[in-house]
What does this fold into?
Amino acid sequence: MKLKKIAFLMLSAMLTLALSISAFAAPYQNYTITESGVYPEPQAYVPDAVINSGVIGLENLEGVAIKTPQDMTLFKANGFILISDTGNKRVIVLDKDMRTVKQIISTWTKDGVEDTFLNPNGLFIHEEKQLLFVCDTDNKRIVSFAFDAETELFSFVRTYDDPDISKYFSEDYQEGDVVVTETPAPTPEATPDQEAEGDGAEGETDGETDGENTDGEATDGENADTPGDDEIEIDNSSGSSSSSSAQVTYKPLKVVVDGAMRMFVVSKDCYQGLVELNDNGEFTKFYGATRTKQSLSALLNRLFSAEAKAKRQQNLSTEYSNITMDDNGFIYGTISQLKLTDLTDHFTSKAEIGAALRKLNAAGSDVLKRTGIIPPSGDKGDEKNRSTYSYLCDVTVSKNGLTSVLDSQKGRVFTYTNTGELLYVFGALGQKITQVGEDKGSSREEQIGYTKGTNLTPTAIQLLNDDETIVILDSQGAQLTTYKPTEYGLILREAINSHEERRYDDAVAAWNKVLGMSSNSALAYRGVGKISYLNASKYNVEDETVEDLREAQRTEKQRLYLEAADYFMKGYSQEEYGKAFYKYRDLVLEGIMPYLMWAIIIVAVGTLLLGWYKKFKRFVETGGKNQ
Amino acid sequence: MEKLKNFGTDLKYAFHVITHPLDGFWDLKHEKRGRSYIALIFLVLYVITDILNKQFNNYTFNELKVAPQDIDLIGTFFSVALIVGIWVAANWGLTTLFDGEGSMKDIFIYTGYSMLPLVLSQIILIPLTNVLTVNEATIVSLITVLGIGWTAILLYTGTMTTHQYSGGKTFIILLAVLLGMVIIVFVGVLFFFLVQEIWNFGFTIYRELELRR
It folds into this structure.
């Protein structure tokens, strides 16, 4: 408790400090979160440009400024940026420079009739097929558009209408009696051991996405178990209660589409997970439902009391707030409305329940690695106050697995490595300044009325420019803010990326530069430690035939393991230290074993001889009388 | 030279006590073999080995190794002294009421001698943790548990022999002593706050008087 308070004070003190120097840098401070609190780090990202209706010339073009935009996406093939201008029922296509409008999609003809959006929200670009998918939320459908490379324009293809998901809740479920257990997700592990083996370990996870979706979840009645076993974790994919099933409506908010044109849709207030549709827009199943925790007593109560049955609706799974898909086809989902108790559990035990960020494999289980000091779920807050934790609303993943999540509550962006270690934090919420636009001569940013680099209600995040620039979409402020990495940020990214791409020498150089800028960076120490460990494990001492070379290699291997152990200790990683030390100890033992054996033999033989000698002496002294 | 030799025999006798507790504790009291300075040395040694453990045990078993600023020599010393002091006081207070034969000095001596296994286990752990790895963590916990268990057995036997109790009575008395320790702490804290209140009261009157002068 006390530590948390200190952490809080430090954080607030830091923020005040950051605000006071905002004239020079950014209106926030980068920090790292450890067990004992929050520590400041050098800035990793600073605001670069603000793009609003004025900058892109929208006011001149159609006379309508962007209003409450909800989502944004990048067309990687040509760098176009698409914004769903929800308030104006249209989708805006921006050129690569983010200054000119390429196209505004608002009307099209479908079967000879003019058609429009009603609250368009989530956008998804299918890079391979060059298709755009738009979640037309209040029309309960998804609209797809094809991109024409010649004219560089999107044209209407088809709509995927309401799959009527409510009919998939049969009468069986309405009692809320059926409990379906999910097979537990494989626990993600990242040990130096696995990383040392390198190639093999990564191939495995990639393979999983390619495989067919065989592990279907029990969404229809046949597979359901009856309750009564002491199952604590329940899966809500099987419908929840009589009241909710009747009201299930399909309101697509966000969508991703995989290589086989399967669509995964976040539907509003749909607690059963993602809605999976086939390439024709027909319902297949619910996918990747989050789990809820239920105490044994509550479960027993539910069996006996009607009241408790009615109350069960409160124990629903949490819905996804946003999803994205990485290059390997894994779906990353953020969950915003988590319960405080689940979150505190998650932060203390890294339990899967309460995780605000999930990475789903083809079977719909969470395979996100959480090896960092704290799990990748945003801020570690105070256990009494939900609002001190994060409300994650969007996620974006780079090709090397750097995962950035956006916290709508505090406007912060947390970036994690692909093993779930926190790299850096940036971003802040802005406050509207009331005296706006009095001075017409002032620049656009000042007219918007809040500090550059802050957002009023951040809703979407996207990586640009080879994953280097991060852009945040501010709904209330109706603008985009791009953030560019500082030198520190660039070096950190370089370190991570070169480690990922197996350029270990570059990675060590980069980590050392990081240490030069932030001398206590546990992350950097662990980074160097991992590389020492990898280098050490490369030596195959036994394969060496020349005796002298073998000895030299053993010494070198031993030295590298000890070095790795030392770095892990500086990086406060007891587990990894233990592994490196174990390898080191074994090598030392191996080295001294022959001598050790000799020493034991000599001592044993010596004692024996000494005993005989004493006996013999006594024999001589007593003249053999006592024998 | 004579003194040194005596010291050597006294120290050696402690090892006899911990290996033959029934006989040893009897002799400590009745044969006057117990030395309070030896008991004191063991207590001090316990504090020292505890600090050494935190400082030099391998990081695999010792998180404090990376946070040496959290190691508190003076704090450890006083907390051990306080706990032993309260233990002796509660023990003596209760056993005199229930026909215990041990004096306060006797209690202190057998407590000190009982600490020896703890000290030994901690001394063994320093080199051992620097050789063992996570896979052999059970050995480390085994030695720790052995040290604590042995000391607990010695404290039990010591109480039994010194006060000449039966086994069952010793058990009950020990529980009562633990309860007594809690009560002493409670009363102590209460007393501390009371004194603070009185001091504040007196100080307020003094301020009042001074201001009205």
